[in-house]
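[Automated response] Your request has been received and processed.

Submitted sequence:
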Amino acid sequence: MARILGYIATSLDGLITAEDDSLDWLFKYDDMNLGEHDYRAFLKRTRTVVMGRGTYEFIAGDSSHWSYGDKRVIVVTSRPIDNPKGPLEVRNDVDAVIRELRGLEDGDVWMLGGGQLQMAFLERGALDEIEIYVIPEMLGGGRPLFPLTGFRASPTLISAQAIDKGCVRLHYRF
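Generated structure:
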């Protein structure tokens, strides 16, 4: 059975994007040394990437190439995607997607991005672990790491580690 994993960065004040939905604040840390926890190493461990429409639109709007090469990519949305940026599958039923992902035997799943879909997975008990990289930036406004929906949980801390440039890696199991 596939594990469904989160891997995300947040500002010190708990935001994943600035008020203008940009990640410029995070790109300042692109040269950060994450060692064995590097994004590329994490991506190699996964076979499937799942994201919501907002995350897909953000990625599709970027001029860089499609980063998910041989990965299976599923976008959960109720609207069709015309001229997708890369190869992907579209689904509209979160519960059906979770059942499908749980049946996979070919590697872990990355729940990419934050926001509504990540919270939908959390509310259904479908996010197994999450790595959160806390970046020492205060944004003052933007999109929160976890939307406030009334959902409550007490995940188990697997590890906490100070890393390069004053950042902290937190690893939790749900």
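Summary generated for your ticket: Residues 53-61 form the longest helix (9 residues). The two ends are 16 Å apart (CA to CA).
If you did not submit this request, please reply to this message.
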